Amino acid sequence: ALAAAGGGGAGLCALLMLPVLLLFLPGLAAGPAGMLQPRDTPSRERRELGGLWSFRADLSPGRDAGFAQRWYRRPLRQTGPVIDMPVPASFNDITQDPSLENYIGWVWYEKEVLLPLRWLQGDPAPRVVLRFGSAHYYSIVWVNGVQVVEHEGGHLPFEADISSVVQGSPGSLCRITVALNNTLTPHTLPPGSIQYMADKSRYPKNYFVQNTKFDFFNYAGIHRPVVLYTTPAAYIDDITVTTTSSDSVGRVQYQVSVAGSTANSLSLSLRDQEGKVVATGDGPVGELKVLSPNLWWPYLMHENPGYLYSLEVRMQAQLDGALLEDVYTLPVGIRTVHVTSSQFLINGRPFYFHGVNKHEDADIRGKGLDWPLIVKDFNLLRWLGANSFRTSHYPYAEEIMDLCDAYGIAVIDESPGVGIKLPESFGNRSLQHHLAVMEELVRRDKNRPSVVMWSVANEPASELPPAAHYFKTVIAHTKALDPSRPVTFVTDANYALDHGAPYVDVICVNSYFSWYHDPGHLEVIPLQLTAQFENWYKTYQKPIIQSEYGADSVPGLHSDPPLMFSEEYQQALLREYHSVLDKKRKEYVVGELIWNFADFMTNQGTTRVLGNKKGIFTRQRQPKAAAFVLRDRYWRIANESSCLPPAITSHSLFL
What we know:
Its main location: other. The chain is an alpha+beta fold.
């Protein structure tokens, strides 16, 4: 992305990522200990704030006019020209302005809403919370001119209790202002750098570029729903569940934390999908036992995949003489995950990942949440016979994860640790931020049965010596946060040089033989891929996933014999990989994830024609020839390993 601005190089960079440390109103914090997904319950209300917001990019020479002029103190339209901007969406592709397409720096959003009077009154009044599903990358939020939260990171939720602001203001108008910055530095996640072009004979004054070491477009904006929700003043703050099963008994261990007051009573009821109560409990810590449980199974591993119970938590508390009750309902899937030296087990049965890598990416809306696209993608996944995907290369929206839970799609849940290539990105500052991101990710997704493994990074420079301490620390921290799941990162380093691999539970390897290496030479794949697997397994004695492989193909481009970028070459490359995978999956290879599910946008470059074309579907979700190769393969694997009736495993059901 390119931009031109005034001011000195270092000074402008500081302004681009200006950590505006304004005073917080007493009583406000960056977020509670818990991060329960907002739901409507008998004691809670939620209101989505999607639609059109006012928008303004700060085009001042230093990108700092919004702060210098305090745009948050008054309606944004009074500060200068504004345009309509849809939320959720990336702002880059919405207009015809090329400077906005590639804009780097601060942009401003604003939404004015009227709050129901019942949210503002009562003794005690309810708690009012403002929550962002995600905003990329650095966010500062004001309500009625008062700063309420500041957050770093573009792919995870953040929220603020705004009760004292809105309940202390006259009237029910709530003006929400957001300053958002998409600049990436060596210490952000993902990292990047600002490069200033000093040659005045070739570049305008103070011309700079945003450099990144990842191969997808750095879309920016408010990408996921913005929600206002209420809870009682004393409320259920967090719930943690872990599950086990043995001898026809399912066990749900739970821990519930409350805030605002001490709970007088805390009761739990676990209901099956017919609404029948199958277990009850009380108190903040305990275990629920379910006889003959319906286990959560991945898609095509059971005739009823994705089975979810409903855990209702009910709390009563006394506060200021009033008896308050809060109710929260959490979907729960009972399942186990275990890793041996050569197998990945779900509920004690070997599980083979036959799935995809994806991106949150589509025409016009960029990375913005889009329900029709999400449902289309899940229909394509099931048509394909895919049982899994990796959230490459950042956490996906909660709405997507909800469907993974419900449909039985196993997920390798990946942090935004992509492009960690520079030595300075392995320093303590970067490490501390990475640890904080893993805390946010685990806090958000810890209760999801679909999440079967955490991935802390993708293709880092793990051959560098500092990577040993870095990944040992990040992986140990993630395991401490959640001992119930295996942890990995995805490598493209040489097996003999990788300093992080000793600490993972599963080896995830990306390789592009006959594409980036020996391009055009399909005949080298069997030898090179076999050597890859054997070297990794001999060194580490851990199960292996082929976490990326593939080739670009331009839709409609044909060549026989196969030549690069043709649909036939993509098919041929896949078949060469599959011939080796079929041998090794009988030994210690436990999965294969194609790169990629669909074509996606990247930065412009001489090797990218309107983005990366390695999708088996186009960006508009139309199948290329390779999609049918993969579909035949995945259904064959499912039929080989499944105990389902023939009608269930027949992919003719999904024609």
